[in-house]
Structure formats: C-alpha cells, structure tokens
Amino acid sequence: MSIDKSMKVLVVDDFSTMRRIIRNLLREIGFTNTVEADDGSTALPILKQGGIDFVITDWNMPGMPGIELLQAVRSDEKLKHIPVLMVTAEAKREQIIQAAQAGINGYIVKPFTAQTLQQKIEKIFANA
Amino acid sequence: MDRDERLSWARRLVRAIEAGDSQAENEAANAIARRQTLHLHEQLQRIAKELRETLCNLDAAEELARIAHRELPDTHVRLNQVISLTEEAAHSTLSAVEASMPLADGIAEAVERYRAEHALPRGPRGKALAALFDSVTASATELRARLSDVMMAQSFQDITGQIIRRVAGLVADLEAVIAKTHAARHGSAEHRRSSNAGEGPALPGRHPDVVAGQADVDELLSELGV
Fold first, then answer.
1. CA triplet B104, B105, B108: central angle to 5 degrees?
2. Computed from CA positions of residues A39, A42, A48, A52, in that sequence, does the dihedral angle turn out positive or negative?
3. Is residue A3 part of a domain?
4. Which residues span the domain enclosing A39?
5. Which pLDDT tens digit goes with each residue over B113-130?
6. Which among A28, A92, A108, A120 is the top mutation candidate for probing chain B, defined by the most B β-carbons within 10 Å of its own β-carbon?
7. Does any domain span residue B214?
C-alpha cells in the first residue's frame, strides 16, 4: 500500500472524545498530520484555506451536519476532489444511500473498530 | 318519590288538616319534608363530586405548569451534566491510555535493544533469559492491544452523548408545548427537525430501515458503486 502518510487529515466531530480517538487511531496507522473541527460550519473555512487531503466526518452535529459538509465540498470546484469518509452512528439505509449519492468515499457506522477504520482508509486510497 | 306518591301525600295532608287529625297531618308533612331533604342531599352530593373533579383538574394543570417551569429546565441541565461528566471521564481514561502506550512500546523496545547489543550466555541461563525476553515482549504487545481496546471503548461517550442530547431536545420541546398549551390552550411541537440533521444512534428494534452493522453498510455501498 502506498498511501502518503504525511497527508493532512481533517477530523470533524462534535464530541471531543471521538475526535481524540480518531486522531489516536490515525496516529497508530501512521497519519500524524491531523486537524480538528467540531461541525461542518467550522470545517469549511479550514478546508477553504487549503492543504487538506482527506476528511473524516461525523453526520449528526449541531450547526452544519456532515451530509451538508459533504455536499458543500462536492459543489466547490477547489474542494470536490477531496476524499470524504463518514464515521457516524446514523445507520438508516436511506441515509447511507443519500451519502453515496452525495459522493461519499466511505461510510463507517459507530461503534467501529480500529481495523475497520484502517481498512476503509486503505480502500479509499487504493481506488484513488 | 314520583308524582303520584307526592300527590297522594299532599291529599293526605289536606285531608288531615280538614279533619283536624294532627297526627296524620304531622306524618304527611314529615314525609314531604323528608323528600325535600333527600333531594337536597342528592344535589349536594353531585356538587361535591363536581367540585372534587374540578379541583383535581386544577391540581393536574398546576402540577404540569410546575413541571414545565421548574423540573424540565432542571432535567435539561442534569442531562447536559451527564454529557460533560462522561466526557471528562472519557478524556481522563484517554489521557491514561495515551501515557501508557509509549510505556508498553518502551518495554518491548528495551528488550529488543538489549538483544541486539548483547549476546545471550550459553547454557541454561541463556535459555532462561531468552524465554524471559520472549515472555516480556509478548506481554508488552498484548498490553498495547488491550490499551487500544480501552481507547476504543471510550467511544461510548459519543454514542451516549448523542442519545442524551436527543432526549434533552425532547425535554425542551415538551417544555415549550406545555408552556404554549398553558398559555393558549393549544400548541404543538413547532418544528420537525430536518432529515439532514441526522437521527442519532438507532434504537434496537425500533427502526426497520436501519442497517445491522458495518457488513450491511459495505454491501449497500458496493451496490451503490462506492
């Protein structure tokens, strides 16, 4: 696998516990360049500043939910190429379909394992 | 006492007065008076019953208003307190885990370094040392994996937090509805959350449309070409 481990990852979740866990897991698999946001509306300005290579986002957040962040990323010429992985407790089939149609690259339902996260990241960058 | 009976007592009263029979007159007058008392008694009972019911309804309305004004905002605060307490606890655990992981790594690395720099003595002492080193390395690896489990287990806080937030939202809605009903005798939840806001963690057995696990998600996504 030849993923560039120095890529900058944006972790978006309203719970600081979950952001910390995801960052720890990313560090375990070699990604140390991470930044955080607590919902879509704080994530977007960070994305627009540039330099983000990959987004991991929750769905259900106060303010702008993850699905709207995804839609905003996909409709922005400068951001649309960035892979987005949804890590969420939202588990309705219609939601997964909605996310797929909005252009999600991967979807993990919480609670999840470290192995699942690693597999999905590998899958996203194997396809890229 | 029906009409015929009343007429009969009235005629007996008239006859007794005309005849000057005071005993019969008393008897008839008492019968009529008793009937009046009975009627009054029934009316009083009915009024008492209505009064009791009205007071109960008033009590319930007062109780509801008290809950809306005092208990519900308290509940909201308490639920938020649960979120912040569990969040703090989860962070403490994560700090301990983050501090422990390098220690586990350090033990394994120290053994490896020793082995790289020093030849083990021949004979039983060397064998014993090799076994000891293997055992320490295995334990350090196992410890690292268990620490990782402890870290992942802290993700409960995100799930319970989302559920509690949802309940807190419901409490706030209820509070608003009661306040409105109390003020204007009608009211309803004023907004339905947009579906984009998300549903929160699924309740087991409550939503038929929910996937059963990551395997279901993967299957659905591959059908959709993701």
1. 90
2. negative
3. no
4. 9-121
5. 999 999 988 999 999 999
6. A92
7. no
